[in-house]
Structures are given as C-alpha cells and as structure tokens.
Request: fold
Amino acid sequence: MGPFKRYILIAFVVLSSPRVANAQGSASYYPWSGLLAFSTNPRKAIWLDTRVQTNSLFSSLSVDLLPLINLKRGEVAQWYLGGGLRVNPLYRIADPDARLITVDGYSINFGVRASPFPQKRQIQIALELNPYITDGFSSGVLKSHFGVAYVFRKREKSKDE
Reply:
C-alpha cells in the first residue's frame, strides 16, 4: 500500500470514529457533475466528504472519499483543501477478475462553501476545483463542481424543555 493510500485509510478511520460519526453533517448535490455527497460536520477543522455519482451504470459507479481541511472559516464562507481517493466497489459486476475494491484515481480538492442567506446559514452554495488523475497516472482532468449543500445542525433546546 502506497503512502497516499495509507494517508486516506488513516483519515477515513479517524473521521469515522464514533465521536465523529455522531456529529452534525451535511448533504450536497452537484447537478452538473451528477454527484450526491454526504459529509461529517463541515464546520470542523477536519471533515470527511463522500460522493457518489448519480448518472452512471452500476458497474462504473465510483465513490469519492475526501478528507478535507478548512483553511479559513467565517460566518458567510469557508475555504477548504483536501485530497481524495476514488474507488469503485461495484466494478466486479463488469469484471469478475477485478480486485474487490478497484481504485480509479486520486484528486486534490480546493473549494469554498458560501452561506448567502443570513437567516438560513445552513443552506450553502458550493464551488470547487478538482484536479483528478487516474490510478495509473496515465491521464488526468481538471474538474469543477458547482452545487448546493445543506448543513444539519443539532436542535437547540428551548427554555421550556
């Protein structure tokens, strides 16, 4: 296992610990990229984003695992950076001789989430640049993602409760 894969595995284990798993989270949709994303609390310093393609055949269904680090967090915007690993857990449908989990490629993610509505800060606009390279380092592409996110927050208890 290469050092980059080890880094992703360690980050995944840390971020999926019971303490982090019970934390607040968010759901995002990137309509032009066809991505549905779920993440741990994006307001934390380090968070995990997982993305699933929604416009793909099952045999080419890839999942992105992205540990992200917030570079700057304000009330209106947060800037983040991270690396990612794209895996394909269902590739064995198309090729029975494939590895159990096929690694498709790697990415670097740089983005911003902006909360444009003062009364509804949990609604965010997400914009991201995403250089991506295939597993064999034979080709790559610069992707951009534009979408909307909703951050789930714990309900505050009222004085009556």
User: Anything to note?
Assistant: The longest strand covers residues 102-114.
